[in-house]
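Incident review: delayed structure delivery

Summary: a single-chain prediction request sat in the queue longer than the usual turnaround. Root cause was a stuck worker, restarted by the on-call engineer. No data loss occurred. The affected request and its eventual output are reproduced below so the record is complete for anyone auditing the incident later.

Affected input:
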Amino acid sequence: RRCLGDDCDVGAMVAASPSILGLSEGSIRGVCDFLERHVFAGDVARARGVLQTRPQALGLSVDRVLRPRLAWLADALFEPPRRRRAADDDRSDGLDRIADLVAKYPPVLGLRVEGNLRPKLELLREYARRSLGRGAASPRDGDDDDEDLERRVQAAVAEVVSTCPALLGYSLERRLQPRLHEIADVHGLPFRSVSTLLRLSDAAFERRVVALAEEGGQQPSRREGP
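Output delivered after worker restart:
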């Protein structure tokens, strides 16, 4: 309680994650300070709200897990490809760029880069690139064109993830891949519809994706496997 403040319901946090009772005061304080100072730019209430929702994060190492993980995610979403830091660069500058994302979806703190965040963002980029490339006029030659497309792809993915950060927790095989396939490959809908459609229940998704295709003049194709 000395680290978290009186506003946190410590009892509820312990009930949700009993293992935090075994953490040292120093490690708890380190996580609190990191979130408050580097992610939420001094907004103590927001940092503690995240920890109240996701107390398991108190058990994560700042230097080995939180800082490099969030730095990677911030760069992957908002940093131009040629300026992204190396994978082993654990600086925490710029993490305030994903403060809203972390506040909206605290479980993101526990998602690994390899095998989780990276393949999901790569899949989203693939579909964004396909959608934006399809809408381009006659392509020109040169690196400038490629860089412009990649900037637009990155902006589109960042907007989708910022709007619905919970999609980072969805199953790649059971939800993201089949739904992106149906949205783009079967119905030809634009990438901007992804943030709304991915979060719907299965039944609502089927109804909405067909309705959007009909509104846009697209004739739904016969459903295929991903």
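Verification: Confidence is low (pLDDT under 50) at residues 135-139, 219-226.
Action items: add queue-age alerting; document worker restart procedure.
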